[in-house]
Amino acid sequence: MAFEIIGKPLPKIDALPKCTGETRYADDLQLPRMLYAKILRSPHAHARIRRIDVSRARALPGVYAVITGRDLPTRFGILPVSQDEEALCAEKVRFVGDPVAAVAATDEWIAEEALRLIDVEYELLPALLTLEEALRESSVRIHDYGDGPNIHKMISLEFGDVEEGFAQADYVREDIFFYAGSTHLPLEQHAAVAQYGPDGKLTLWSSTQTPHYVHRALAKVLGLPPSHIRVIATPVGGGFGGKSDPFSHEIVVAKLAMLTGRPVKITLTREEVFYVHRGRHPVLMWIKTGVRRDGTIMAMHVRSFLDGGAYGSYGVVTAYYTGALQTVTYKIPRYKFEGVRVFTNKPPCGPKRGHGTPQPRFALEVHLDKIAEDLELDPIEMRRRQIVEAPSLTVNWLRISSCGLRACIDRVVEASGFREKFRRLPFGHGVGFACSTYLSGAGLPIYWNDMPHSGVQIKIDRGGGVTVFCGSTDIGQGSDSILAYIVAEVLGILPEDIRVVTADTDLTPVDLGSYSSRVTVMTGNAAVEAAEKLRRLLFRAAAERLDVPEEQLMARARRIFDQADPERGLDFAEAAQLAEARFGTLGAVGSYKPPKSPGRYKGAGVGPSPSYSYSACVIQVRVDPETGFVQVEKVWIAHDVGRVINPRLVEGQIHGSVYMGLGEALMEEQTFRSRLGLHKAPSMLDYKSPTPLEMPEVECFLIETDDPNGPFGAKEAGQGPLLPVPPAVANAVYDAIGVRVDELPITPEKILKGLEDKARGGSGRVGPKSIPSLAWPEPIRVEPPPEWRDVPTRSS
Amino acid sequence: MNGEQHPLAVPVYKTLLEVLREDLHLTGTKHGCELGECGACTVLVDGEPVLSCLALPIELEGREILTIEGLMEGGRPHPLQSAFAEMGAVQCGYCTPGIVLSAKALLDRNPMPTRQEIAEALSGNLCRCTGYIQILDAVERAGARMRERRS
Ligand code: FES
Ligand code: FES
Prior knowledge:
By secondary structure, chain A is an alpha+beta fold. Chain A has 20 helices and 30 strands.
């Protein structure tokens, strides 16, 4: 069927207001009598709080309230298993930046002055700033829960017998990699405004990606009935995962508003944003793969060590993700994963674009490149021959519904001229290749429940206007517009006829939030369901009036008409009035819950998704052997998005992902001073990120596979395209100068170190040499799905 | 200010950014750092891009200031604004006001910039969402439209 709206490069419905300054972000809100809040944060990485004296701050004119941990004793956290955060620390601080006290005052200057008047007496504790330290110093405990001293979570899973697989392999290779931590650096600093009415109702406006989870956290910590709390996510000025946790500052302004009876606003400074963090986990990885002579994978064993920082955040999920998706790209018949997340006295890590999967993807794709070279195989063909089938189940029970990876590979290889360039360009020039997979939303919600993950409600006005209500949060990816396109397509109207009301817990049905690339698939399916219900009513009313069978009707261009005789029809608004007269007020709801995953083992909750997107990428670089500087000359990237709902938006997501992937590959890194735990670069100048001058040309190819679980067949596009970028850069650098930098970011210093090592007769490899020895628990042995039980052994 | 006169009494330590947002309620001007590092707070002073977080109003007496709110012409979007909306140059939109104004200064000075010149003119404006590509596309398209209009 030809679409009217789907597939067109239409502008986003909120684009113009964002260009004229009309859009109101959280910090743009000003309410009468509003106070301003500031948070006092710990200057120490690890310390006990002996005493806090706020009396001098309270006495300062213009100060309306000062609160400490005693005022907010209930712990919270995004995951039910890691409720380890306090809105203000009462007894102990665990990283530089941990919140300790808060002030509400008539303006920010007075609030800041008041912070200086708060006296806190700390007793310093040893600060554990590296993963190795945290594992070694078991007498110092950052938290008193977890799977061991300073061990937040340990995972060990085995699907099929990997040792048997290795024994049958012709070649086994082991590698160690490190992927540095980086931060989201959204352009908008987090901000929130709270208002508490005399009716006992609380409203919070916040730049959050997950208003529903903030709603739950506020109810828990403030002890208010959830029905008295309204959370509104304002348009988010960049999230990338960094605004997905409920945050201390959101709870603090709410409490201050309750205490003062006045609206209270807080806006974090840029420095605070660096400390609040929840960004990419630094991960050390070990990977071992056994292959046949032709490169066919027989078994794989992966270990990951995550430096989690001071709190749980999404960390348990992140840890599982470092091991979950390896099996979704290539056929892996036996697979073992061991992972550990460790607490350290640094800003907590959490989800950043790709959530726990860019790190192992970097390891996997560079590792495969090395195997191909060792066996003198074409790195493309070696991968291409063992792409997963669709539909199928992976060895760890993930269901693949569609896969366009082969087409992705073919497009980028052909367009880039990879085969003519690979290992053939002059010294200093190189090409690299990598593939990847990402999920279109998590199969399970963050807290266990049986309700839909996404709800949409639609109402039709007598004038033909349509309003769509949905809890989803537009963080710039265009989720509001996607709702409008989808509803417009189904009802046969135009996106500009639709008003979209989103992310307001009072007005909109729940959507779990803008994370894990779930929004298009989940809200899209819910929107299709609601819109189709209404279309049925409109068709029924129109059929009676036009005397045409319902099945023969079509909705298009604001008309409902007979397909056989398009002249015979009604205006959309007319049809709406007829339907309202016939059936009463017009409204409908739709909801979506992902299909149940067949995996039945502990840990099976992380990895399942309604569908998986696929990407393939070729990157060409020029490396200056004098300076070690890597210039990315061009990126070719193909992405299997299932169905293109709007090509401009999909390409925008790909560009943004490539940009962020290049930043992580070449320059971005959260670094801390040893012992003190101070961030080395908490400013946009010192934390290097690519500017327009560093951004190369990007050629995108959009591949459609019409996924059975997606709205119109769509899958995700917001995170997946980041994943192949860092390994493709690393493989290209090796092609250019023969140096393997197995540690991101690939900085000029590391390149020069590799070149020097090579000149001295070394291998030229730069990267970690060992992993900590750990007593891993006995693995949970999971019987693979039937199709993997009888895997081919060594070819006879 | 955007073609209007604003007699204002504000504390001397307040930056132009703060006066715009808090005293004049022109919240279209954004901020990402308040340290002169991100470009989100860019406004035009006598047609030249200025970081409002580093500028003091007291130094700007009698100068002409243009903020994003003043860019529409008779209720119609400026060619840069429509091109940004059409080309996907706006994701979260937080960098947009600053970038649109930097681009305006460029196009007013150089109506037919090369892609490299556009990238250079915008190199002080960070955008974390778009990878800049659709922003450069939008500036090119707006430039072409403005040239057409003039001829
Ligand atoms: S707010 Fe002025 S440059 Fe960032
Ligand atoms: S569009 Fe989000 S920072 Fe530029």
